[in-house]
Amino acid sequence: xxxxxxxxxxxxxxxxxxxxxxxxxxxxxxxxxxxxxxxxxxxxxxxxxxxxxxxxxxxxxxxxxxxxxxxxxxxxxxxxxxxxxxxxxxxxxxxxxxxxxxxxxxxxxxxxxxxxxxxxxxxxxxxxxxxxxxxxxxxxxxxxxxxxxxxxxxxxxxxxxxxxxxxxxxxxxxxxxxxxxxxxxxxxxxxxxxxxxxxxxxxxxxxxxxxxxxxxxxxxxxxxxxxxxxxxxxxxxxxxxxxxxxxxxxxxxxxxxxxxxxxxxxxxxxxxxxxxxxxxxxxxxxxxxxxxxxxxxxxxxxxxxxxxxxxxxxxxxxxxxxxxxxxxxxxxxxxxxxxxxxxxxxxxxxxxxxxxxxxxxxxxxxxxxxxxxxxxxxxxxxxxxxxxxxxxxxxxxxxxxxxxxxxxxxxxxxxxxxxxxxxxxxxxxxxxxxxxxxxxxxxxxxxx
Length: 448
Prior knowledge:
By secondary structure, this protein is α/β, with parallel strands linked by helices. The protein has 19 helices and 18 strands.
């Protein structure tokens, strides 16, 4: 039900409150002064504190800060014999859950405790979720043991402890956002926001508004003030993915934020201060973009203080098995299947594939294979035909004739359509081909 600590030097009142509260099923503890209360708080896991304002060794209003500093998830209800507005206001400012008068408000205590318990339990759940999230995106949970990949992780760990701007480079799908999150969670900013934005996903005007916010009336449709992502990330980290796609004039505004720590909202004239760590990422070679005039040289120097290149999957083939098993477990659970392993042939085919889409491509392949699998093992027959065909040629195995290839492709398409119950749009997505391509193949194979 919850644990309650009553702090009051009036023994009779304390005992009466303890009896009333314990009848509701709560576990109740008592302390006559603040010194004894702190000892109990350190020994016990308390949810709610009922504290008298006037204590022999302190004032309850002032002591709230001390309790909250050591035990931030405990809710505090102040009790006073003579309520006054200034004390009540200050108590709430100091972090009290509520402030009530003894005697007059006795009928409010139990409902108030229930509400305080709800808030405490919610805070505990949030803390647990944050812990799980931290574990999920920590460096320890990034999959990969190849030498080139471990070197990238080691660099990321070293820069995490600083506020240095980081530039992550590498092909699309190599896991740059995962690295950015791990750097944030290993930094001293990990209790603050991590905010991510893909700079290639917005027009120039929308990207400026997303990053810096806007004032009401700044442009058509801006009906109210809006915080930008830099403001949301204040004291935390912002991840600017595909920064190479940002327009030159917006690059100039970003440079100002980096150099001065100040930004101006769209439609605003005043500057505002922000303290944000920037992690940028790009699949482009920004040095060449600078030479061609598509990227500002001064901004390039500011964001590339510490560069980390993430290797392509074809450079770390020894990690394919671990990654494939990880994705297999995830999608097996999602589809309620009990797939336990990857066959030798399946893994060998994956290792021979070049993976132009890197980890993202591998993830999509495993998802599709899990969906198509009818046994407890993933085998080559569940792989997309283009991967099987390409890797077969690469290993100098016997080439498929046009008839054999067509038959295999037709069979694969029919299996996917059967799974999607004839939904061609979903089938095209699962096979990673365009809808028009699917219709053309269905026509070629005379499939209705």
